Protein backbone atom coordinates (compact mmCIF):
# COMPACT_ATOMS: atom_id res chain seq x y z
CA UNK A 1 0.00 0.00 0.00
CA UNK A 2 1.15 3.62 -0.37
CA UNK A 3 3.12 5.30 2.42
CA UNK A 4 3.09 9.00 3.36
CA UNK A 5 5.69 10.11 5.89
CA UNK A 6 4.41 13.22 7.70
CA UNK A 7 7.55 13.99 9.74
CA UNK A 8 10.91 14.38 8.03
CA UNK A 9 13.61 16.98 7.39
CA UNK A 10 15.96 18.18 4.65
CA UNK A 11 19.42 19.45 5.51
CA UNK A 12 22.31 18.81 7.83
CA UNK A 13 22.21 18.88 11.63
CA UNK A 14 24.64 19.56 14.43
CA UNK A 15 24.84 15.82 15.02
CA UNK A 16 27.45 13.48 13.42
CA UNK A 17 25.31 12.18 10.54
CA UNK A 18 26.42 11.13 7.07
CA UNK A 19 23.27 12.34 5.29
CA UNK A 20 21.67 15.70 4.89
CA UNK A 21 20.61 16.74 1.38
CA UNK A 22 17.26 16.13 -0.29
CA UNK A 23 18.61 13.33 -2.44
CA UNK A 24 19.36 11.40 0.77
CA UNK A 25 15.67 11.69 1.62
CA UNK A 26 14.74 10.22 -1.73
CA UNK A 27 17.19 7.35 -1.36
CA UNK A 28 15.69 6.39 1.99
CA UNK A 29 12.19 6.72 0.57
CA UNK A 30 13.06 4.35 -2.26
CA UNK A 31 14.61 1.87 0.17
CA UNK A 32 11.47 1.67 2.31
CA UNK A 33 8.74 2.24 -0.27
CA UNK A 34 7.72 5.71 0.94
CA UNK A 35 5.76 7.51 -1.77
CA UNK A 36 5.49 11.04 -0.34
CA UNK A 37 7.37 12.75 2.46
CA UNK A 38 6.52 15.99 4.26
CA UNK A 39 9.70 17.82 5.21
CA UNK A 40 10.92 20.89 7.06
CA UNK A 41 14.36 22.43 6.67
CA UNK A 42 16.77 21.66 9.49
CA UNK A 43 18.23 25.16 9.09
CA UNK A 44 14.77 26.62 9.65
CA UNK A 45 14.19 24.48 12.75
CA UNK A 46 17.44 25.17 14.58
CA UNK A 47 18.70 28.54 13.29
CA UNK A 48 16.89 30.81 10.81
CA UNK A 49 13.29 30.00 9.90
CA UNK A 50 12.99 32.40 6.96
CA UNK A 51 16.33 31.50 5.36
CA UNK A 52 15.75 27.80 5.90
CA UNK A 53 12.28 27.92 4.38
CA UNK A 54 13.68 29.77 1.35
CA UNK A 55 16.39 27.15 0.86
CA UNK A 56 13.81 24.37 1.13
CA UNK A 57 11.65 26.03 -1.51
CA UNK A 58 14.48 25.56 -4.01
CA UNK A 59 14.95 21.91 -3.05
CA UNK A 60 11.24 21.18 -3.44
CA UNK A 61 11.02 22.68 -6.92
CA UNK A 62 12.59 19.64 -8.60
CA UNK A 63 11.42 16.92 -6.21
CA UNK A 64 7.65 16.34 -6.46
CA UNK A 65 7.73 13.48 -3.93
CA UNK A 66 8.68 15.96 -1.20
CA UNK A 67 6.20 18.48 0.21
CA UNK A 68 7.14 21.25 2.59
CA UNK A 69 6.36 22.43 6.08
CA UNK A 70 7.10 26.13 6.57
CA UNK A 71 8.78 26.52 9.94
CA UNK A 72 7.24 29.22 12.15
CA UNK A 73 9.42 30.87 14.81
CA UNK A 74 7.28 31.89 17.82
CA UNK A 75 9.90 34.50 18.78
CA UNK A 76 9.48 36.39 15.48
CA UNK A 77 5.82 35.89 14.81
CA UNK A 78 5.10 38.79 12.42
CA UNK A 79 8.06 37.84 10.23
CA UNK A 80 7.15 34.16 10.36
CA UNK A 81 3.46 34.72 9.63
CA UNK A 82 4.33 36.64 6.46
CA UNK A 83 6.86 33.98 5.49
CA UNK A 84 4.29 31.23 6.04
CA UNK A 85 1.97 32.94 3.55
CA UNK A 86 4.79 33.24 1.00
CA UNK A 87 5.65 29.57 1.34
CA UNK A 88 2.04 28.46 0.93
CA UNK A 89 1.65 30.69 -2.13
CA UNK A 90 4.49 28.75 -3.79
CA UNK A 91 2.25 25.69 -4.01
CA UNK A 92 4.95 23.39 -2.64
CA UNK A 93 4.18 23.73 1.07
CA UNK A 94 1.23 21.97 2.68
CA UNK A 95 1.57 22.82 6.38
CA UNK A 96 3.49 24.54 9.16
CA UNK A 97 6.08 23.23 11.59
CA UNK A 98 6.85 24.60 15.04
CA UNK A 99 9.57 23.35 17.34
CA UNK A 100 9.26 24.03 21.06
CA UNK A 101 12.69 23.54 22.58
CA UNK A 102 14.95 25.23 20.00
CA UNK A 103 13.07 28.56 20.22
CA UNK A 104 12.43 28.02 23.92
CA UNK A 105 8.65 28.48 23.77
CA UNK A 106 6.35 25.78 25.13
CA UNK A 107 2.59 25.30 24.75
CA UNK A 108 0.88 27.66 27.15
CA UNK A 109 3.25 30.55 26.48
CA UNK A 110 2.02 33.80 24.93
CA UNK A 111 4.43 33.38 22.02
CA UNK A 112 3.22 29.87 21.23
CA UNK A 113 -0.37 31.07 21.36
CA UNK A 114 0.41 33.76 18.79
CA UNK A 115 2.12 31.17 16.60
CA UNK A 116 -0.97 28.95 16.80
CA UNK A 117 -3.09 31.93 15.79
CA UNK A 118 -0.93 32.48 12.69
CA UNK A 119 -1.22 28.85 11.61
CA UNK A 120 -4.96 28.77 12.29
CA UNK A 121 -5.39 31.87 10.12
CA UNK A 122 -3.40 30.21 7.33
CA UNK A 123 -5.76 27.21 7.47
CA UNK A 124 -3.15 24.45 7.23
CA UNK A 125 -2.21 21.57 9.55
CA UNK A 126 0.57 22.12 12.07
CA UNK A 127 3.30 19.63 12.95
CA UNK A 128 4.34 20.49 16.52
CA UNK A 129 7.42 19.05 18.20
CA UNK A 130 6.15 17.68 21.52
CA UNK A 131 8.31 16.32 24.31
CA UNK A 132 7.04 16.64 27.85
CA UNK A 133 3.99 17.16 30.02
CA UNK A 134 3.28 20.51 28.38
CA UNK A 135 1.20 18.47 25.92
CA UNK A 136 -1.58 18.76 28.50
CA UNK A 137 -1.94 22.40 27.45
CA UNK A 138 -2.78 21.47 23.87
CA UNK A 139 -6.47 20.46 24.04
CA UNK A 140 -7.52 23.91 25.27
CA UNK A 141 -5.17 25.68 22.83
CA UNK A 142 -6.55 23.76 19.86
CA UNK A 143 -10.21 23.80 20.92
CA UNK A 144 -10.12 27.59 21.25
CA UNK A 145 -9.02 27.90 17.61
CA UNK A 146 -11.76 26.24 15.51
CA UNK A 147 -10.42 24.44 12.47
CA UNK A 148 -6.83 24.17 13.73
CA UNK A 149 -5.40 20.68 13.37
CA UNK A 150 -2.20 19.83 15.22
CA UNK A 151 -0.02 16.76 14.75
CA UNK A 152 1.79 15.96 17.99
CA UNK A 153 5.22 15.05 16.62
CA UNK A 154 6.86 12.25 18.63
CA UNK A 155 3.48 11.81 20.37
CA UNK A 156 4.74 13.69 23.41
CA UNK A 157 8.12 11.94 23.60
CA UNK A 158 8.61 10.76 27.16
CA UNK A 159 5.11 12.05 27.97
CA UNK A 160 3.40 9.71 25.52
CA UNK A 161 0.76 8.69 28.07
CA UNK A 162 -0.24 12.32 28.65
CA UNK A 163 -0.20 12.92 24.90
CA UNK A 164 -2.54 10.00 24.33
CA UNK A 165 -5.12 11.39 26.76
CA UNK A 166 -4.74 14.88 25.33
CA UNK A 167 -5.41 13.62 21.81
CA UNK A 168 -8.35 11.52 22.96
CA UNK A 169 -9.99 14.63 24.44
CA UNK A 170 -9.64 16.87 21.37
CA UNK A 171 -10.70 16.13 17.78
CA UNK A 172 -8.10 18.55 16.38
CA UNK A 173 -5.12 16.61 17.79
CA UNK A 174 -3.32 13.84 15.92
CA UNK A 175 -0.55 11.51 17.11
CA UNK A 176 2.64 10.65 15.24
CA UNK A 177 4.95 8.28 17.13
CA UNK A 178 8.47 8.60 15.70
CA UNK A 179 11.27 8.82 18.27
CA UNK A 180 14.66 7.28 19.02
CA UNK A 181 13.42 5.05 21.86
CA UNK A 182 10.89 2.45 20.74
CA UNK A 183 8.95 2.12 24.01
CA UNK A 184 6.66 -0.87 23.71
CA UNK A 185 2.92 -0.38 23.81
CA UNK A 186 2.68 3.34 22.99
CA UNK A 187 0.19 2.92 20.17
CA UNK A 188 -1.87 0.35 22.05
CA UNK A 189 -2.05 2.72 25.01
CA UNK A 190 -3.24 5.57 22.79
CA UNK A 191 -5.97 3.44 21.30
CA UNK A 192 -7.11 2.25 24.71
CA UNK A 193 -7.20 5.89 25.82
CA UNK A 194 -9.69 6.58 23.02
CA UNK A 195 -7.63 7.97 20.14
CA UNK A 196 -9.34 6.76 16.94
CA UNK A 197 -7.27 5.19 14.19
CA UNK A 198 -8.30 8.08 11.92
CA UNK A 199 -6.06 10.40 14.00
CA UNK A 200 -2.91 8.28 13.95
CA UNK A 201 -0.23 9.18 11.39
CA UNK A 202 3.04 7.69 10.18
CA UNK A 203 6.25 9.69 10.58
CA UNK A 204 9.93 8.81 10.64
CA UNK A 205 12.03 11.87 11.66
CA UNK A 206 14.22 11.11 8.64
CA UNK A 207 16.97 11.80 7.98
CA UNK A 208 17.78 12.06 11.69
CA UNK A 209 16.40 8.55 12.20
CA UNK A 210 16.26 5.66 9.76
CA UNK A 211 12.62 4.94 8.77
CA UNK A 212 13.00 1.30 9.82
CA UNK A 213 12.39 2.36 13.44
CA UNK A 214 8.94 3.76 12.76
CA UNK A 215 8.02 0.96 10.38
CA UNK A 216 8.93 -1.54 13.11
CA UNK A 217 6.72 0.24 15.63
CA UNK A 218 3.76 -0.02 13.23
CA UNK A 219 4.53 -3.66 12.51
CA UNK A 220 4.26 -4.45 16.21
CA UNK A 221 1.14 -2.34 16.84
CA UNK A 222 -1.36 -5.02 15.83
CA UNK A 223 -3.20 -3.04 13.17
CA UNK A 224 -5.58 -4.79 10.84
CA UNK A 225 -4.83 -4.32 7.11
CA UNK A 226 -7.62 -1.73 6.86
CA UNK A 227 -6.27 0.17 9.88
CA UNK A 228 -2.73 0.05 8.55
CA UNK A 229 -4.00 1.46 5.26
CA UNK A 230 -5.34 4.46 7.16
CA UNK A 231 -2.25 5.03 9.30
CA UNK A 232 0.35 4.60 6.57
CA UNK A 233 -1.21 7.01 4.10
CA UNK A 234 -4.95 7.57 3.93
CA UNK A 235 -5.20 9.70 7.09
CA UNK A 236 -2.39 11.94 5.87
CA UNK A 237 -3.89 12.20 2.40
CA UNK A 238 -7.19 13.31 3.89
CA UNK A 239 -5.61 15.74 6.36
CA UNK A 240 -3.34 17.48 3.83
CA UNK A 241 -5.39 16.99 0.66
CA UNK A 242 -2.64 14.94 -0.98
CA UNK A 243 -2.74 12.64 -3.98
CA UNK A 244 -0.41 9.67 -3.93
CA UNK A 245 1.42 9.00 -7.23
CA UNK A 246 0.21 5.88 -9.01
UniProtKB/TrEMBL annotation:
Top-level taxon of the source organism: Bacteria
GO annotation, biological process: secondary metabolic process
One GO MF term attached to the UniProt entry: hydrolase activity
Residues annotated as transmembrane: none
Classification via InterPro entries: ACMSD (IPR032465), Amidohydro-rel (IPR006680), Metal_Hydrolase (IPR032466)
Domain Amidohydrolase-related: 4-242
GO CC terms, sorted: cytoplasm
Secretion signal span: none
Keywords, alphabetical: Hydrolase, Lyase
PANTHER family associated with the record: 2-AMINO-3-CARBOXYLMUCONATE-6-SEMIALDEHYDE DECARBOXYLASE, ISO-OROTATE DECARBOXYLASE (EUROFUNG)
Record-given protein name: Amidohydrolase family protein
Native source species: Streptomyces pacificus
Amino acid sequence: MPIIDVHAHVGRWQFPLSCGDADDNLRLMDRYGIDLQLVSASEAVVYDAVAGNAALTKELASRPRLCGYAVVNPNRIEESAADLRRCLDSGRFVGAKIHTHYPGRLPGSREMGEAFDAVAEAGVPLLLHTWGREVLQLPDMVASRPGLRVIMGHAGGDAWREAAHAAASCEGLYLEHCRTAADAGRIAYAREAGVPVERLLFGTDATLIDPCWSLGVLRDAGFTPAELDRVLWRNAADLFGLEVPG
